[in-house]
Amino acid sequence: MSVSSIRIDDSVKNETVRIANRLGLTFNAVIDISLRQFNRNRGFAEPLCLVDEMDKTYREMSPREIESIMQEAVFTRDEPDANAFVTMFDESGRLYRQYDDGRIEYVLS
């Protein structure tokens, strides 16, 4: 076991300690776990997090909430570049756009 000295911004450490305490961990345990995961994954992996401080997933939303979010996304989106997608039909005959980045957007009529 070695002792290391690192410089951490006070606000970052305080927030880390706050979250670690809620998870039942010490600050040192968070650092140790983070470094072990980093080594095992050969880089950064998805972190352990507090679910109650995250946005809801679609499974936790009511149909009304989902509808509201979808409508907001449609009304606030930027118009796509006409060359950034291809319009096609799926197996059931529904019209959709497939974008260069892999996204698929169904065209509602």
Describe the structure.
By secondary structure, the protein is an alpha+beta fold. It folds into two domains: 43 residues; 52 residues, no CATH class. It is 39% helix and 12% strand. The protein has a three-stranded antiparallel β-sheet with strand order 1-2-3, with no helix packed on it. The mean pLDDT is 81.
Cα(first) to Cα(last) distance is 65 Å
Order of helices and strands: HHHEEE
The total beta strand count reads 3
- If strands are numbered along the chain, what order do they take across the biggest sheet? 1-2-3
Biggest beta-sheet profile = 3 strands, antiparallel
Task: For this entry, give a set of tags.
2 domains; 109 residues; single chain; alpha+beta; 3 helices; three-stranded antiparallel β-sheet
